[in-house]
Amino acid sequence: xxxxxxxxxxxxxxxxxxxxxxxxxxxxxxxxxxxxxxxxxxxxxxxxxxxxxxxxxxxxxxxxxxxxxxxxxxxxxxxxxxxxxxxxxxxxxxxxxxxxxxxxxxxxxxxxxxxxxxxxxxxxxxxxxxxxxxxxxxxxxxxxxxxxxxxxxxxxxxxxxxxxxxxxxxxxxxxxxxxxxxxxxxxxxxxxxxxxxxxxxxxxxxxxxxxxxxxxxxxxxxxxxxxxxxxx
Length: 232
Known about the structure:
232 residues, alpha+beta, 4-stranded antiparallel sheet, 6 helices
């Protein structure tokens, strides 16, 4: 009975929107680890998004993965139903860019300030998520994406195709379906696997990564991808 009550309480927590979000950008180049509360992230963009945060004054730690340099070690308060967006200044302090109201009607759907709905987590590419223009995310529509996929198909070799795809992912957030579409442009499973692993950190709905399964010629490579994700 106690466990059931706990689950109900957790459900009400999300339905009532009792969670905050923290978006933070490091204005440096390199590979970084970022920790806030119990969440740990790693990427090469210096842009981190933390969701499902209880109201707290949590410790934000960011470290350069290559040099070991501590970029930031600060406390950032995240109130209920608010998304804090900021950057790390030269002195390692958190500089607030803006604060936005967030409200959830269930665990996967969010209301924007304009009253529109979009899937949770919100898409950081302009399709329903009002991020500041200097956030590092480009606006991406389906036509632009298809043009890029067509460009990849015209490449002669997987190595140049992979280089272009990685560069594209650094400035555009992709859905799992879009990651799959890029995956299918490669000639070899080794390239597909390297891309899928790389793109995981740039996918705004990684919970749907299972759609990539048909893109691999060999089940062993897809299993390798699953093992990689499980360790993140």
